């Protein structure tokens, strides 16, 4: 069955087609949900909420642009919606922000470890880091998505990078000690 036909059947509330769409995209969307969630259980809840939203709003998809991109935006927005109601962001003075660049030697740290330490970041840092670094959103877009100011986005990104850098340095120092 073509994707267009599958979408049309989902628009008609066909539960078999909805199940097929779920099977087709659940792994990709779960990875996105996990990236923004605190843990696997929360990611699973967020994925289910995202699919409920997808099925409720699928008639709004007009076959313009990437369907997968549309699904991804809904998934990210579903996860972010949980954080909008929480006070996870602090207001900062924009002039006091330094953009910190952190170089990570991919050969020195496994991708699994890197993803683990990103997921362990405090919510406000993890969300901004993922949106900016992994998904390529601008600070203006992040500020709009999270209902924060641009300075808060920049500050949280800088702090996330500093925490990651420190965690990786500690990891390397510990590894070095174990190899002695």
From TrEMBL:
<comment type="similarity">
    <text>Belongs to the sigma-70 factor family. ECF subfamily.</text>
</comment>
<dbReference type="InterPro" id="IPR013325">
    <property type="entry name" value="RNA_pol_sigma_r2"/>
</dbReference>
<dbReference type="GO" id="GO:0016987">
    <property type="term" value="F:sigma factor activity"/>
</dbReference>
<protein>
    <submittedName>
        <fullName>RNA polymerase subunit sigma-70</fullName>
    </submittedName>
</protein>
<keyword id="KW-0804">Transcription</keyword>
<dbReference type="InterPro" id="IPR013249">
    <property type="entry name" value="RNA_pol_sigma70_r4_t2"/>
</dbReference>
<dbReference type="InterPro" id="IPR014284">
    <property type="entry name" value="RNA_pol_sigma-70_dom"/>
</dbReference>
<feature type="domain" description="RNA polymerase sigma factor 70 region 4 type 2">
    <location>
        <begin position="112"/>
        <end position="162"/>
    </location>
</feature>
<feature type="domain" description="RNA polymerase sigma-70 region 2">
    <location>
        <begin position="21"/>
        <end position="87"/>
    </location>
</feature>
<dbReference type="GO" id="GO:0003677">
    <property type="term" value="F:DNA binding"/>
</dbReference>
<dbReference type="InterPro" id="IPR013324">
    <property type="entry name" value="RNA_pol_sigma_r3/r4-like"/>
</dbReference>
<dbReference type="InterPro" id="IPR036388">
    <property type="entry name" value="WH-like_DNA-bd_sf"/>
</dbReference>
<keyword id="KW-0805">Transcription regulation</keyword>
<dbReference type="Pfam" id="PF08281">
    <property type="entry name" value="Sigma70_r4_2"/>
</dbReference>
<keyword id="KW-0731">Sigma factor</keyword>
<dbReference type="InterPro" id="IPR039425">
    <property type="entry name" value="RNA_pol_sigma-70-like"/>
</dbReference>
<dbReference type="InterPro" id="IPR007627">
    <property type="entry name" value="RNA_pol_sigma70_r2"/>
</dbReference>
<dbReference type="GO" id="GO:0006352">
    <property type="term" value="P:DNA-templated transcription initiation"/>
</dbReference>
<dbReference type="Pfam" id="PF04542">
    <property type="entry name" value="Sigma70_r2"/>
</dbReference>
């Amino acid at each position: 069955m073509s994707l267009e036909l599958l979408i049309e059947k989902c628009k008609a509330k066909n539960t078999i087609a909805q199940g097929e769409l779920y099977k087709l995209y659940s792994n990709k969307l779960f990875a996105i949900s996990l990236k923004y969630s605190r843990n696997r259980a929360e990611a699973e809840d967020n994925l289910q909420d995202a699919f409920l939203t997808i099925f409720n709003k699928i008639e709004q998809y007009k076959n313009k642009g990437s369907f997968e991109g549309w699904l991804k935006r809904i998934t990210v927005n579903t996860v972010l919606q949980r954080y909008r109601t929480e006070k996870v962001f602090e207001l900062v003075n924009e002039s006091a922000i330094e953009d910190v660049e952190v170089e990570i030697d991919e050969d020195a740290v496994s991708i699994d470890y890197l993803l683990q330490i990103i997921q362990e970041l405090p919510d406000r840092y993890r969300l901004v880091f993922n949106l900016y670094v992994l998904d390529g959103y601008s600070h203006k877009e992040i500020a709009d998505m999270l209902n924060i100011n641009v300075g808060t986005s920049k500050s949280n990104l800088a702090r996330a990078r500093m925490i990651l850098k420190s965690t990786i340095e500690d990891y390397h120092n510990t590894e070095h000690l174990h190899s002695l």
